[in-house]
Design a protein that fits this description.
It is built from eleven helices and no strands. The chain has 220 residues and is mainly α.
């Protein structure tokens, strides 16, 4: 693929965002949560796991653990058992307890609402922090880059990077900051409903005319 100018990519990204907004007007985070703590917990659990499976587990988990102090005081063995249907559940239980202990000690039991403090918590990287900030606090600090966003950003020719943080840096200048949170939701919804990994539905794709289909070998 020939290298595209930044202005051309920006114009194409703007149109992609417009069409995806029309296609998915109700796009939102598909993890179930009622407050910043629940979203933080759910997002930590979602690493290498589907949102659907996380929601099944948290439906019971959030009834048992209602505050940050509940997680901070939990037995690692008991919490691991409570989330055993989640991949890497032992490590995630350890991270949840450590993260909530830090929140209790440093943030008066409240999930911090800034990137710098969030990424200091166990089990929290930039992606998880962006999820919490964008959805629980309505703060567009960055763009969430999960597997769907990374795949679509490549297929759409919006980045040549493979590292999630570098992909994010490529995407941020292409859409208005006010749309950063929604832009990731639009791409995620499109990735789940239309542009899946193995067999994307290109014939019905709402943004087909704007997509160079990088890495996709399908008939026109």
């Amino acid at each position: 693929m020939a290298r595209e100018s930044k202005s051309s990519r920006q114009g194409r990204a703007t149109e992609i965002a417009r069409l995806l907004r029309e296609a998915y007007p109700d796009a939102h985070c598909e993890l179930d949560y009622r407050n910043p703590l629940e979203l933080l917990v759910a997002t930590i659990l979602s690493a290498q796991c589907t949102d659907k499976q996380v929601n099944l587990v948290t439906a019971e988990l959030f009834q048992k653990y209602r505050s940050c102090s509940d997680y901070a005081a939990a037995s690692e063995e008991v919490l691991a058992h409570d989330i055993r249907r989640i991949g890497l559940y032992r490590n995630k239980a350890r991270n949840l307890i450590a993260a909530c202990q830090a929140i209790m000690a440093k943030h008066q039991g409240k999930v911090p609402s800034n990137l710098e403090d969030l990424v200091q918590l166990a089990g929290v990287g930039r992606k998880t922090a962006n999820v919490v900030l964008g959805n629980a606090f309505s703060m567009n600090v960055g763009i969430v880059v999960d597997t769907h966003v990374a795949r679509l950003a490549t297929r759409l020719g919006l980045t040549r990077e493979t590292n999630p943080e570098r992909i994010e840096l490529d995407l941020m200048p292409l859409v208005p900051q006010s749309d950063w949170c929604l832009f990731s939701h639009w791409l995620i919804w499109h990735g789940r409903r239309r542009c899946n990994a193995r067999k994307p539905d290109c014939t019905q794709c709402e943004i087909r005319a704007l997509c160079p289909r990088v890495g996709v070998n399908l008939p026109d």
